[in-house]
Amino acid sequence: MDQQFVAAVNQICAEKNISYEKVMDAIKSALATAYRKDFGNKEQEVEIILNEGSGAFASVLLIKEVVNDIENSNIEISLQEAQKMKKNVKVGDEIRIDVTPLEYGRIAAQAAKQVILQRIQEAERESLYEMFKNRENELLSAQIMRVEGDSVYINIENHTVPLTGRDQIPGEKYYNGKRLKVYLDKVVHTSRGPELSISRTHPNLVVRLLEMEIPEVIEGEVEVKSIARDAGTRSKVAVWSENDKIDPIGACIGQKGVRIQSVMEELNGERVDIIEWSEDPREFIATALQPAKIAEVIIVNAGDDPRVRKRAAVFVEEEERPMAIGKKGQNVRLASDLTSYELDLYNIEQLPAFKDKLKELSKSDRRVGDEELGGSNEVADQAIEEAEKSIEKEEGGEVGHWGKLGKAVVNKLEKAGYSTLEDLSDMDLKALEGIEGIGKASAAKILKEIS
């Protein structure tokens, strides 16, 4: 029986990843609770002696202080009574009295069981925090333990952690025993103790996978400058190397694409585009919009002031426009996230009118340059709005199946992933204003068209 006891304790230690000492402390605390439940009260100080070598239960000791006059018999004992047990005891000493019971009652046993479970859970949470508190932003190896509907529970170093729906890659199949990589975003303190916030959709998961597969990245010879991700379908990663002898794109892709293919396989087939970062925002934006060929990029607001959003006008040939926008606006949206610029797409035919309007504004506002604005959101918005009005007026202001909406508004709707007015038919004014780049005036105009 003693061997079975020790084996059970060791099994708990292995499964819960907690120390043997903490499990034994939990057992001692449980036995003390059981004794107080059946034979004593909460005020008593009880010590449990276990033979930890064999796991055999030894004895229960009741601790009392030796005093001349007893005020609380639960924690005090008179000198006369104490000397009957130990001759050389004196006032102020503590004396331990063996009160080991022959057996415990059912209620006491249940209380002991509850204490053990609670203490083990507390120890498990403490172990979890200590193990992962300094490992935030790391890539972790995991294995799926069970799948319950949309809930996926994975094992990370003997800890069961839930992978929430928002952190699962859309379309990825999860099943018991599957091995995968997860990104540890942070260790979160909650009312129930520390919890691991893990993700398969976080952009940094891609960065950590690149570090794992590409030596030049982990060694710092190739730097990941920025990343934009639409989890499950596509990511864009901007890389750069200070060493002219290193091709950052080639290093990431690898011979015959073997390196980037390994990353994409771990991401359930998600496409990962590697592009070269440039300190010239015009060049960077044009590259970020690949595979579309960009005719010209005009920086409308460089955004040196953090309170002012960065904006750029991008001009493309008509046949390049669908590729620049991408399916449901994905390409331009990812490029915008990658470059940190709000991008407005225009056809190349609109370029002269746009430049003329910028030059006109530059004469009336010192904050505006020939082809670049840089003072405030108000100035940038005015430039865009006035230029778009000029373009619409020059080109008739209507775009086929979009009714009487001007090209400027249509551009923003297409950028957001809408193809026709029917796609907007269920939206109200507030919902329309929530579309990126659509203000109150444009939203009212759209609502009029779909009404």
State the CATH class of the largest domain.
Alpha Beta
Please state the oligomeric state of the protein chains shown. single chain
Rg over C-alpha atoms, rounded to the nearest angstrom: 35 Å
CATH superfamily of the largest domain: NusA, N-terminal domain
Which topology of the largest domain does CATH recognise?
Answer: N Utilization Substance Protein A, Chain:P, domain 4
What features would you describe in this structure?
It is a single chain. The protein is of the alpha+beta class and 451 residues long. It has 16 helices and 15 strands. It folds into 3 domains: 2-130, N Utilization Substance Protein A, Chain:P, domain 4; 133-201, OB fold (Dihydrolipoamide Acetyltransferase, E2P); 278-404, GMP Synthetase, Chain A, domain 3, CATH 3.30.300.20. Helices cover 40% and strands 24% of the residues. The longest helix is centred in the first third of the chain and has 27 residues, at 106-132.
